[in-house]
TrEMBL record:
Protein name: Acid phosphatase 1
Presence of keyword Glycoprotein: yes
Keywords for the protein's UniProt record, in alphabetical order: Glycoprotein, Signal
Top-level division of the source organism's lineage: Eukaryota
Annotated organism of origin: Salvia splendens
Amino acid sequence: MVGFGWSMQGMREAMVLVFVAIWSSSKATSTWWRGDSDEAWDNCLSWRLGVEANNIRAWRTVPPECSAHVEAYMVRGQYQRDVALIVDTICAYIDSIDLSSDGLDAWILDVDDTCISNLFYYSGKRYGCEPFDPVGFKTWALSAKCSAIPDVLRLFVKLIAKGFKVFLVTGRDEDTLGQATIRNLHAQGFFAYHRLILRSGAYKGQSAIVYKSTVRKQLAEEGFRIWGNVGDQWSDLQGEYTGNRTFKLPNPMYNIP
Ligand SMILES: [Mg+2]
């Protein structure tokens, strides 16, 4: 019996060793406990992290195999949770600021996919897998159907209540989209901002970084102190006079250099 007991124990140990060997081997080479689709999904998660961290740059479209991943991210709640966490973080920062009485404490918000969402438009573009269509986007923007991003509206209301001068700075063309943008912002609850700044003819052809840096420089020269700067594109947050703190909102659907 003792010999049989030792034998059973030995068999168990051998089975464990075999299992560990298979597990280690599989982990090193592939993912035998997951399907290929799971691995592809995780690759898209890595791509999205690379985009949001600005490690992947100058990308033009979402990889075709990541359309479903980006769709799931945008519509199943994770995007909304991420935005809510960022806004909570911004609100804590706002609470730490003592405003001056000179009325020059300023905050900058981008417009598209910061204040208002173009998610519905991009749902018709396979969530960014199709190249940017300037004519189609302009038609969409003129229709003024963009909805508010609720947590950013919450942030906007807090900024106004605290006494910040809020500047909405957008690369949208002033001549063709100015009125539609104002209507859209008002329809979605964005009132009482200090100034909406659109791209005028003087800035046509400039990159977003150069255009927005120039706008911020002009605000600084007017005496405004830019405490915060929020946008969904890295080009909203780079360049000069970026502000005391910048906050990047997620957007895996398109990239504006
Ligand atoms: Mg934007």
